[in-house]
Design brief:
Aspartate Aminotransferase, domain 2, binds 4'-deoxy-4'-aminopyridoxal-5'-phosphate, Aspartate Aminotransferase, domain 1, single chain, seven-stranded mixed sheet, 2 domains
């Protein structure tokens, strides 16, 4: 069989299972309004939670740095890719997250892989929330430790697993801070208590919480007033740029710099990304208004959809999953939203469990009240048309 014939057959199977995906072309990252596949849409699926990806002050900062430092970093941090901007940003992230030190990675995905593949040793065990992000799952797969899954945010389940794994050398509890598909917040106070009681370490992926939760946007650690052993984050969501990071103790950073393969063997992020992220963090810490506006809109959307009779998952985070049920109706719902100028994709199995297909809305500080009103009117109309609400 030819190479391409073999792949065509495999793709055919993906199509038959209803899991075939394709990309859509966006006119720019200038959300929330953009042209998607030729038609103007209000985007309700972006991670640009504070609207910083196209903030004029940050763009100007980036242009200036670009002119001074050029495009790429040209090497890994340990060879020739380490500029003053990388170090300045690491110090800034550490002070923002109130930790001793920080280490940059090329993405949040690679930060998770780097931590989980290097930190736990053979004979250790990773206790991982059932709904953790794919990058945590992949990191666990690459780890020398074994992985045990506990039920989503269920502290009885976590405690049971902690009791069952006493024979392992070390236990690591690993969890998303805010879960990307359900919009739930990990109960970190209880997790830290259990970790303390059962002598386990805690690793939190704060990708969706950084910039959003906490008075100054520092994430779940600020929201709950806790200090996990390792916090992972991304520059690609509320911070509006691109790249990942890990914060914690100085010795943790020193360890990862020496052992995390996704740090050692990858080209450093461009200095321009560091400079823009640095300025974005300054903005996030000082400007509480964007966060307040965001929280107000989250409450308006959730309250209204709930009152209409929709099943809405999650807590007060920018991720608002509206459960539709079967995959086909969810796709239909999403198409009808698009016809109304709203872009919000359907999320289907295997990303979510069977019967829990949904429209996953994300709201950002850049959305306006009238855009939210249009969203809610469209949901009511389409929900009734597809007989999801009465
Ligand atoms: N963790 C979580 C919870 C995420 O949702 C994502 C991105 N979707 C990542 C990590 C990966 O971050 P990045 O996009 O920076 O690779």
């Amino acid at each position: 069989m030819s190479f391409n014939h073999w792949l065509t057959q495999r793709i055919e199977k993906t199509k038959q299972a209803g899991l075939y995906r394709g990309v859509r072309t966006m006119s720019s990252a200038a959300q929330p309004k953009m042209v998607v596949n030729g038609a103007e849409q209000i985007v309700f699926s972006s991670n640009n939670y504070l609207g910083l990806a196209n903030d004029p002050i940050l763009v100007e900062k980036a242009v200036n740095t670009l002119q001074e430092f050029g495009l790429g970093s040209s090497g890994s941090r340990l060879t020739t890719g380490n500029t003053e901007w990388h170090e300045k940003l690491e110090q800034r992230i550490a002070s923002f997250k109130k930790s001793e030190a920080a280490l940059l990675f090329s993405s949040g995905y690679l930060a998770n892989i780097g931590v989980l593949s290097s930190l736990p040793e053979k004979g250790d065990v990773l206790l991982s929330d059932q709904l953790n992000h794919a990058s945590i799952i992949d990191g666990c797969r690459l780890s020398k430790a074994e992985t045990v899954i506990y039920q989503h945010t269920d502290m009885n389940s976590l405690e049971l697993k902690l009791k069952e794994t006493q024979a392992y050398t070390r236990r690591f509890i690993v969890t998303d801070g805010v879960f990307s598909m359900d919009g739930t917040i990990a109960p970190l106070v209880q997790i830290m208590k259990l970790a303390n009681r059962y002598d386990a370490y805690v690793i939190v992926d704060d990708a969706h919480a950084t910039g959003v939760l906490g008075e100054e946007g520092k994430g779940t650690s600020e929201h709950f007033g806790v200090s996990p052993d390792v916090i992972i984050g991304t520059l690609s969501k509320a911070i509006g740029v691109e790249g990942g990071f890990v914060t914690g103790s100085r010795v943790l950073v020193d360890f990862l710099l020496n052992h995390a393969r996704t740090f050692i063997f990858q080209t450093a992020i461009p200095p321009v990304s560091c400079a823009a992220a640095y300025a974005a963090i300054d903005m996030i810490e000082k400007d509480k208004e964007k966060r307040k506006h965001l929280l107000r809109m989250i409450k308006v959307i959730k309250g209204n959809l709930d009152a209409m009779g929709f099943i809405v998952y999650g807590q007060d985070t920018p991720i608002i999953p509206v459960i539709i049920g079967d995959a086909e109706t969810s796709v239909q719902f999403s198409k009808k939203l698009q016809e109304n100028g709203i872009y919000a994709p359907a999320i289907r199995p295997p990303t979510v469990t069977d019967g829990k297909s949904r429209i996953r809305l994300t709201v950002t500080a850049a959305h306006t009240d009238s855009q939210i009103e249009h969203l809610l009117t469209s949901f009511k109309y389409i929900g009734r048309e597809l007989e999801i609400i009465s």
